Amino acid sequence: MNVLIIGARSHIGRSVARYLLGCAEVNLFLGSRSDSGVEDLRTVFPGALVLKIDANCVNSLRGAVGGMHRVVVISSDFANETVVTRNLIEALYGVVTLEQVIRVTGQWPPVAAAAPKSMQEVNLTAPQLLAAWRLLRESGLPVTLVDLAADDSKNFHRFTGEGTCSIAEMIAGLLQQESGSQIGREYSL
């Protein structure tokens, strides 16, 4: 199974990669938008294929997602979520191997729902995430949404119905399950 983590240099993406690196059934692909991020990932994860990916460029995404089975997307706090999401959707439409997209966000979209519709396209994180989730839901792609529902996503441990686990461990677990059971699911941690 080919798994791509876009935003793998981040603390959550890096941790998910650590969980997946030892899995025999996973061919791990890691993406970062900066040259320094690419070099860092190559050093830390010599067993993974590292790609430079600019989510603001649809062609960059297309080049990265081809042949992937599972894609995890974690964008920076300063990304224009609407642009990134539209580019991601366009890039993924032609990927015949795609089984699952896990979109990780760091702010609870129901809070963003209170924002006026006119604010959902501007460069404000909460309204953008709401717009991004709507676009993903309407895309027809096999999407699983994971929201950290916290201001501090560096706090890796959350309580789940089965006890305490790390966010990264939970996401890695979703990637290793049958994708069909997770499509359309939304998790708030």
Overview of this protein structure:
- The structure is a single chain.
- By secondary structure, the protein is of the alpha/beta class.
- The chain has helices at residues 11-21, 35-44, 58-65, 81-92, 109-112, 125-138, 167-176, and strands spanning 2-6, 27-32, 49-52, 70-74, 100-105, 143-147, 157-160, 163-166, 186-188.
- It is globular.
- 40% of the residues are buried.
Number of helices: 7
Taking pLDDT < 50 over at least 5 consecutive residues as the criterion, the unreliable ranges are 151-161
* Strand order in the sheet with the most strands: 3-2-1-4-5-6-9
Biggest beta-sheet profile = 7 strands, parallel
Shape: globular
First-last Cα distance: 26 Å
Helix and strand run? EHEHEHEHEHHEEEHE
* Overall average residue pLDDT: 81
Estimated structural class: alpha/beta
Spatial extent as radius of gyration:
15 Å
List how many beta strands DSSP finds. 9
Strand residue percentage: 15-25%
Helix content: 25-40%
